């Protein structure tokens, strides 16, 4: 018998939770009505959560609650009230993204397990160890981590590792996507993602397609290797999916893991075995994800569920179409005919259309050809069978002991609970018979329990009423289902230190992507510039000593890449040491692992835009962890004021917004090949003619998608806002830098096109 990973299934509502438990999930993750990253899911009310605990706890199924959004300061009182409402109910773990939320949970509920959400973008061993230092029990690794990297991480830590094995993939690193936020006001970091990555885009040369539409992953081919690698938990994505989906996918992986447990191997899953899973949901087939190779993951045809091929058109005359299939058709089946035109013609079958179990005739307005493939998108009979099977929750076996001794209170025990009944009397006529007692204790119909064994101490001639026995049985079940509530600790939450006194002179931090930009800015700058932040990738071949002389005594803080997997670590560490060799000893981290890496190399940490702050608790966290941190660009001007000018905080005053950080290469997807050299820029335009820039970073093989217009808050920021301003240069020319410097001096908008970002209207 082998130790195997748990199956962690999604639950968007109680029906899905029951489906997951029935299908063999070891744990379930769910969100309440607030502060979770799937706000469009039905969510669980407080009473629903109580019911979820009653279902899961006696069956040994763990319950993980998602509090995995970034929280605004004005929401903080509501968050604390919500925590005190739901966390005492018997939740086993809390999944969090916001470090402020994590510290609040740790402070008020120290016995509750903390899991670092994939939204934290933990990508490497240093990130896992950093989370361990902060008191987390488990890390949900970024989806982009490879199988080899999982093995490397496991070899150096006992921390629980959780990975996604099935379901939708985000185009961007989770927690690093602002596209939905800035192209519609619905923030993925706050559970309101509108999935703009699933839309079609047009490139500069006129090519169009779903360039960012990733297929869903299925890790079945890698299940054995991931199990051997020491992964603790296999996570299925899908809190927006149906109970049929949850039941079918969970049962599929349950069978494979049970096979691994018994034999030590997982067989190669055949296409025929995959068909039922694909019928539930797929986008043009499945991908292996990032486990070995990140190529061929995009489905350019359609972002929708595509079903499975079941037959062909055998006759088509004057819109009258006849199809022949290799499977049994059902009334209610939704079919698509892949005619070469998108969207594909669809039909929902009714009983009048059948001419046999595998043949149907119907009318379509759109022309189709004999030989066109017929796909079944929805199979209601298969779904209903899954739902019916899932409705039958597995019964819970109870081992019960009952003592009936004359002159003593009746005592009923099970599962660590003891129920004391009335004092047992001597029978006036005939005492209780064993078979009668056993019959009363077995009356568990409709409760979800069954009597597995009864250890009975029955003194001859003893008596207790059947009503009393029944009440003891009911009290025992109630005690088992209703565990004692946790009590919050009264420990004070971390407090945020604020800047003392009135606002002083503006301090400017200039983030630079190229040597040419540094050269131009250095020529223009004055005493307001307090820090240069050269992008590490843009300066790897530079004469760093010469650049420091150009800095003229201003502190230099190289900014690490927005990615930091094990595959990147050696190069990043080499560059840090090269900067240290010329006297630089402060570096900006953009993923959690880089915080620990910088410290491990004896340097001081700045928390970069990838670790942005939305509330005072998160600010207090980074005040202890870093020399400087950045306020979230998703905050409005008013919400920035709510931070109350915390120490060590800077605000993005100017710069293009990094909408996405992705392991995918849009240049390769559009052009069919990688960019030939270095870092290139191309443009993508959506259906509303909103454009964005794609910048490839070939050194570490990732891409950034940037806003076309820079966000500029010049002329808007007041002395009540943080007085340290961050200016980020990406693609600006010398002429634009000159115009920008004049605008900075006058504290007004530059002369070229810019955006106010979220200054006036915030995010959901």
From the alpha carbons, calculate the radius of gyration and give it in angstroms. Answer: 30 Å
In percent terms, what proportion of residues is strand?
Answer: 15-25%
Q: Specify the CATH homologous superfamily of the largest domain.
A: Copper homeostasis (CutC) domain
Taking the alpha carbons of the first and last residues, their distance comes to 48 Å
Roughly what percent helix?
A: 25-40%
Major sheet size, sense and barrel closure:
8 strands, parallel, barrel
Task: Please state the average pLDDT score.
Answer: 93
Uncertain parts:
none
The global form is globular
CATH topology name of the largest domain: TIM Barrel
Which structural class fits the helix and strand makeup? Answer: alpha/beta
Question: Numbering strands along the chain, what is their spatial order in the largest sheet?
Answer: 1-2-3-4-5-6-7-11
Give the helix tally: 21
Count of individual beta strands? 36
Question: Which CATH C-level class of the largest domain is it?
Answer: Alpha Beta
Count of distinct structural domains: 4
For the record, the CATH architecture of the largest domain stands as: Alpha-Beta Barrel
Describe the structure.
The protein has 764 residues and is α/β, with parallel strands linked by helices. It has four domains: 6-169 and 214-280, TIM Barrel, CATH 3.20.20.380; 308-391, Thrombin, subunit H (Beta Barrel); 396-481, no CATH class; 507-656 and 710-746, TIM Barrel (Alpha-Beta Barrel). The protein contains 21 helices and 36 strands. It has an eight-stranded parallel β-barrel with strand order 1-2-3-4-5-6-7-11, surrounded by five helices. Strands 24, 25, 26, 29, 30, 35 and 36 form a seven-stranded mixed sheet that branches. Strands 9-8-32-33-34-31 form a six-stranded antiparallel sheet. Strand 2, helix 2 and strand 3 (62-67) form a beta-alpha-beta unit. Helix 1 (14-22) packs parallel to helix 2 (46-56), helix 4 (99-108) packs across helix 18 and helix 5 (125-133) packs across helix 17. The longest helix is centred in the N-terminal third of the chain and has 21 residues, at 243-263. It is globular, with a radius of gyration of 30 Å. The mean pLDDT is 93.
């Amino acid at each position: 018998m082998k130790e195997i990973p748990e199956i962690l299934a999604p639950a968007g509502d109680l029906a899905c939770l029951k489906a997951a438990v029935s299908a063999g999930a070891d744990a379930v993750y769910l969100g309440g009505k607030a502060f979770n990253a799937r706000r469009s899911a039905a969510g669980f009310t407080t009473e629903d959560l109580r019911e979820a605990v009653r279902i899961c706890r006696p069956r040994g199924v763990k319950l993980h609650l998602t509090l995995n959004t970034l929280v605004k300061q004005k929401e903080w009182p509501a968050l604390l009230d919500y925590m005190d409402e739901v966390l005492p109910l018997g939740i086993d773990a809390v999944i969090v993204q916001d470090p402020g939320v994590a510290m609040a949970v740790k402070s008020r509920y120290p016995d509750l397990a903390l899991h670092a959400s994939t939204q934290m973008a933990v990508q490497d061993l240093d990130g896992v160890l950093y989370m361990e230092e902060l008191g987390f029990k488990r890390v949900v690794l970024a989806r982009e981590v490879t199988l080899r990297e999982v093995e490397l991480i496991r070899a150096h830590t006992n921390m629980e590792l959780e990975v996604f094995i099935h379901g939708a993939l985000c185009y961007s690193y989770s927690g690093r996507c602002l596209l939905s936020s800035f192209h519609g006001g619905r923030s993925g970091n706050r559970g309101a993602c509108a999935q703009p990555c699933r839309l079609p885009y047009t490139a500069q040369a006129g090519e169009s397609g779903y360039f960012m539409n990733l297929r869903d992953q299925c890790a079945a081919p890698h299940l054995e290797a991931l199990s051997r690698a020491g992964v603790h938990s296999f996570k299925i994505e899908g809190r927006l999916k149906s109970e049929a989906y949850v039941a079918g996918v969970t049962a599929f992986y349950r069978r494979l893991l049970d096979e691994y447990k018994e034999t030590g191997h997982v067989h190669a899953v055949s296409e025929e075995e995959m068909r039922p899973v694909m019928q539930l949901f797929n986008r043009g087939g499945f991908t292996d994800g990032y486990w070995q190779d990140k190529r061929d993951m995009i489905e350019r045809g359609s972002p929708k569920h595509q079903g499975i091929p079941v037959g062909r058109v055998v006759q088509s005359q004057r819109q009258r179409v006849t199809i022949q299939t290799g499977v049994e058709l059902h009334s209610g089946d939704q079919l698509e005919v892949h005619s070469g035109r998108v969207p594909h013609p669809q039909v929902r079958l009714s009983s009048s259309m059948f001419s046999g179990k595998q043949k149907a005739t119907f009318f379509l307005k759109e022309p189709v050809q004999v030989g066109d493939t017929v796909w079944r998108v929805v199979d209601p009979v298969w779904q209903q069978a899954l739902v019916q099977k899932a409705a039958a929750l597995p019964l819970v076996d109870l081992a019960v002991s009952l003592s009936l001794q004359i002159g003593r209170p009746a005592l009923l025990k099970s599962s660590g609970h003891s129920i004391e009944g009335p004092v047992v009397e001597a029978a006036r006529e005939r005492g209780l018979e064993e078979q009668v007692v056993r019959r009363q204790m077995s009356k568990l119909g409709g409760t979800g329990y069954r009597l597995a064994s009864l250890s009975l101490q029955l003194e001859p001639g003893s008596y207790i009423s059947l009503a009393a026995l029944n009440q003891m049985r009911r009290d025992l079940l109630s005690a088992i289902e209703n565990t004692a509530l946790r009590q919050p600790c009264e420990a004070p939450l971390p407090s945020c230190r604020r800047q003392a006194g009135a606002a002083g002179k503006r301090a400017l931090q200039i983030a630079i992507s190229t040597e040419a930009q540094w050269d131009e800015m250095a020529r223009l700058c004055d005493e307001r510039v307090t820090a240069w932040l050269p992008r590490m990738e843009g300066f790897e071949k530079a004469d760093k000593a010469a650049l420091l002389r150009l800095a003229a005594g201003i502190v230099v803080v190289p900014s690490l890449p927005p990615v930091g997997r094990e595959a990147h670590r050696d190069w990043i560490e080499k560059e840090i040491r090269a900067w240290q060799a010329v006297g630089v000893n402060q570096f900006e981290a953009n993923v959690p692992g880089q915080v620990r890496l910088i410290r491990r190399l004896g340097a001081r940490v700045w928390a970069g835009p990838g670790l942005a702050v939305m509330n005072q608790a998160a600010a207090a966290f980074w005040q202890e962890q870093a020399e400087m941190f950045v306020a979230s660009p998703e905050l409005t001007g008013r919400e920035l004021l709510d931070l109350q000018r915390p120490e060590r905080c800077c605000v993005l005053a100017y710069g293009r917004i990094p909408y996405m950080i992705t392991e995918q290469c849009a240049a390769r997807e559009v052009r069919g090949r990688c960019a030939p050299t270095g870092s290139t820029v191309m443009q993508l335009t959506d259906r509303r003619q909103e454009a964005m820039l794609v910048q490839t970073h070939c050194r570490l093989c990732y891409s950034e998608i940037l806003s076309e217009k820079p966000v500029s808050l010049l002329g808007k920021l007041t002395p009540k806002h943080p007085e340290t301003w961050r200016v980020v240069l990406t693609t600006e020319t010398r002429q634009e830098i000159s115009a920008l410097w004049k605008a900075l001096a006058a504290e007004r908008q530059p002369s070229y096109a810019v955006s106010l970002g979220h200054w006036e209207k915030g995010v959901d």
